[in-house]
Every structure is written in C-alpha cells, then in structure tokens.
C-alpha cells in the first residue's frame, strides 16, 4: 500500500476483515451439498429448487447462492422465470464429493475443527501453545490423543489430510528420482495418499505405512484397497517403538507437528535405522529463508501454533535438523505448489 488514495479506502483491510466470512460461505455450500446437487442435476437450477431439494429455507439459500456467485464458485443465468445457478469448473473439480480431486473433506475438517481452534488464536499467541483445552475441553499433553479425541474426529482428520495428495502428491513424490529406493517406509503415513502416489510412480517400490495402531486400522479398512499388495502396514509409535530398516523414509507433514528436540529425536532414530546409501524425504510447505512468505505457509505456521506443537520452517532450518542427525547431500526442491521436498542421504 503506497498511495494516499489506498489509505482513504483501505480495500485490503476490508478483504482481510471478511476473510473468514468467505471461508464460511464456501464451507456451508459444501456442507449443505450445493455443489454435489448441481453436479448431478441435468442443468442449472433455481434457488427455490435447490432449497427444496436440500431442505433449507428459500431466503437463506438464495443469499448463499448469490454469495457463491460473487466468489466465482457458482455461475448464474438470468431467465424470464428468474436466476438459475450452475457449478463453475473449479467447484466441479474440487468442491464436489465425488471428484477424484475433491477437497471436500479438507474443507469440512477446516470448518468443523480448525475453525473452532482458531477462535482461540489470541490465547494461543499469549500461551505459545495449542488450544485443545479451551476449544474442546481435552488435555493437550499428548498431541495425537488430543487430535484423535474421538474415533469420528480421527477419521475426519484422516480424510481431511489425505485430500491434498490428489493435487500435490505427484509433484512431491516426483521432485527427486526415488527409483533407487525400493523399500520405503512412510512414517506417519496416515491414510496412505502419498504411499499410493509413490507406488504408482515407482513400479519397483513397496511402501509400508507406519502409524499409530488405530490409524493403521482405519487406513486398512477405509482407504487402501486390500488387493494393493505393494502397500503394507506397521503399527507403532515412532518415538517409542523400533523403526525397521529401509532404503527410504518419507516424513510428510511430520516434522512440522513437533518442536526441534522431538524432530531431532526422530531424525536420529531414522538415521540409525536407515540402510547406508538410503535416505529420508521430508515433505513440507517451506517458508522463505527470511520468513517474509509465502503467506500460505505463514498461515499454516500459525495453525501449527493453535493445533500442534511445531511450526513451519525454512529450508535452512530443515537442513540443519537433517545434518545434525547425520544426513548429508541435502537437496531442496520447490515444486511451485503447496508442498515441497527435501532429500537427505545417509
Ligand atoms: N503424512 C501424512 C500426510 O502428510 O498426509 C499425515 C501427516 S499428519 C500431520 C501426522 C501423522 O503422524 C498422523 O497420521 C499421525 O497419526 C502420525 N503420528 C503422530 N504421532 C505418531 C507416532 N508417535 N508414531 C507414529 N505415527 C504418529
């Protein structure tokens, strides 16, 4: 903001002020099934028809649809009978439940869980820690006990986190040539979205999803097809239990959950288990070295404050952790998308 004109009408300020209203409109349209209905319908629908099919008030729905038009999540055609709404390409691709690139579950996790935690952002900054006690009345002593405070919450988390790999998975797994590594462990591999990308890109690889027992159970039951022989499972706690030998360990969005001492503990343990010549692949969103951006990563780092014990880091910070654990030949690859890749070798 440079000119006096900008200061007379601080548009950017209003935009920021309204940021959460925008999020909530998108979340609500998703939750009510607006985009799914319009995908299935033969043609554009009137507001009254949408309200009736989705069981909402006519007045509320009309305003929701018009706001979605303003956000370019819907298109509208004016006919003699009134306005008729249809999905845009963006909503068809990302906001409908059935699309292979659907972000529906991620949005629902934001709407139902992240949003509630962010209510306590000021407290999080004051306290310097996550806000599970205030937001959900659960102890935050064990981070994943708090995150998985019910089976339902754990499943929402798994669906929510998995969604992004249909958009960014191929870029991070293909950032380096991982074909020399055939025995791969995805530590904290969760629902297996990245493991699936990995076996599809590298035909000689097998990937073991190593995660907490209850996560592994759900991954097996709901996410990874039983006939997929190249994905196997290992139930364990990577801080307390042994980590088996492998050529490559993937740590995707793991280190950002933890403070430096826990990251060091985990990386040192991985280094010990790793075959000579093997490696570790970090998949994280990277801050600029001077921490001036990218904004998305700065926002996620705030989210780590409210929801976890870690933070987003710069390439130099990750490289320092890897080097201290004994990894060498550390290479950083920015993908141009949300998540980047760092490879360290033993
Ligand atoms: N790697 C996945 C991804 O990027 O979509 C999931 C990342 S999620 C932020 C962290 C994962 O680490 C969860 O699946 C969680 O269950 C797992 N995790 C947390 N603590 C763990 C522990 N002590 N041992 C094994 N897995 C753990």
From TrEMBL:
CDD domains: AdoMet_MTases (cd02440). Its EC number is 2.1.1.4. The active site is at residue 256. Pathway: Aromatic compound metabolism; melatonin biosynthesis; melatonin from serotonin: step 1/2. Catalyzes the transfer of a methyl group onto N-acetylserotonin, producing melatonin (N-acetyl-5-methoxytryptamine). GO terms for biological process: melatonin biosynthetic process; methylation. GO terms for molecular function: acetylserotonin O-methyltransferase activity; protein dimerization activity. PROSITE patterns: SAM_OMT_II. The lineage of its organism: Eukaryota, Metazoa, Chordata, Craniata, Vertebrata. Residues 15-96 form the O-methyltransferase dimerisation domain. Transmembrane segments: none annotated. The keyword Methyltransferase applies. InterPro entries: COMT-like, COMT_C, COMT_dimerisation, SAM-dependent_MTases_sf, WH-like_DNA-bd_sf, WH_DNA-bd_sf. Homodimer. Residues 118-328 form the O-methyltransferase C-terminal domain. Keywords: Melatonin biosynthesis, Methyltransferase, S-adenosyl-L-methionine, Transferase. This is Acetylserotonin O-methyltransferase. Pfam families: Dimerisation, Methyltransf_2. It is an enzyme of class 2 (transferase). It comes from Chrysemys picta bellii.
